[in-house]
Design goal:
Distance between the termini: 60 Å
Number of helices: 8
Number of strands: 5
Shape: globular
Mean pLDDT: 77
Helix content: 25-40%
Structural class: alpha+beta
Order of helices and strands: HHHEEHHEEEHHH
Strand content: 5-15%
């Protein structure tokens, strides 16, 4: 039985049908290892606004476009997919507070059990490479911007971009297509772009020029 056939089962409740549809749609974005937090994030995106926690637990409710702008992904055509991709690679953490999903921007993930998460805007994040997107990236296609996001997130975690893994993402047609996108992004020079010498070590800044 296919997913489409399953959701038409008259014995399913509306909630069960909705969950199955979300699982089928989000699975490719998470390499088919879908955390429940992704479902909570997707349901919150439906409302058009998301809570963002910054610094020392200061929260604000933002529209999706405003949140995407803060994350440097407002040049993409599909904000929902962009947010899920950031979540899938560990650049966004989803927390439930009184059953309300809130997101934090991750500056650095734990490298081993017991290590803390470090979040953007906290004192601990000052010397951690950031995952922002250069202003010049607005000239790229949505496909290239998503790839740039993925590659810079990998770089900030000192990991190599994996074409096999990225090739399974929704909209990416296998590892060969992923390699083509990797090469096109490398050719832009934006993968290693640093906007200003005043930024903390390794920070990938959105400023247009060095000052």
């Amino acid at each position: 039985m296919t997913a489409d056939q399953a959701v038409r089962d008259p014995q399913l409740t509306d909630d069960a049908r909705d969950l199955m549809q979300r699982l089928a749609r989000l699975g490719p974005l998470y390499d088919y290892e879908l955390p429940m937090a992704a479902i909570s994030l997707d349901m919150a995106i439906d409302l058009g606004k998301l809570g963002l926690i910054t610094g020392n637990n200061e929260g604000s409710l933002l529209s999706l476009n405003d949140l995407a702008g803060q994350l440097g992904v407002n040049g993409t055509s599909d904000v929902r997919t962009s947010l899920h991709r950031l979540h899938s690679i560990g650049a966004l953490l989803v927390e439930l507070h009184d059953d309300t999903p809130l997101v934090r921007v991750v500056a650095n993930r734990p490298s081993k059990p017991g290590d803390p998460w470090i979040f953007q805007g906290t004192p601990e994040s000052a010397n951690v490479p950031s995952v922002c997107i250069p202003e010049q990236a607005r000239e790229l296609s949505a496909e290239q911007i998503s790839t740039l996001m993925y590659m810079r997130a990998c770089q900030s975690q000192m990991e190599q971009p994996d074409p096999e893994k990225y090739g399974r993402f929704e909209g990416i047609n296998g590892p060969d297509h992923a390699r083509e996108l990797f090469n096109s992004v490398k050719a832009t020079g934006l993968l290693d772009y640093h906007g200003c010498d005043a930024c903390p070590a390794g920070h990938l800044c959105t400023r247009k020029t060095r000052r």
